[in-house]
Fold:
Amino acid sequence: MKKISVLTAFIYKEEDMYIAECLQVGTVSQGKTIEEALENLKEATELYIEEFPIATDIHPIIITFEVSTKGEDKTAKV
Structure:
């Protein structure tokens, strides 16, 4: 019987393609749509896990944070 693992995907647009990355495993794929990128990532991740099984369930903590960047502050009032 196959075990189902719930993994996390990080998806972003780069030029005209969507890039999808599996945070726990490190697999990456792409597609012209979000759905296509996610489906391609799922296939790539399943193939990866066949070769390198996940030993335990991984539960990531996803946190956003801010960093300072050089450039004009667009929110400053004049």
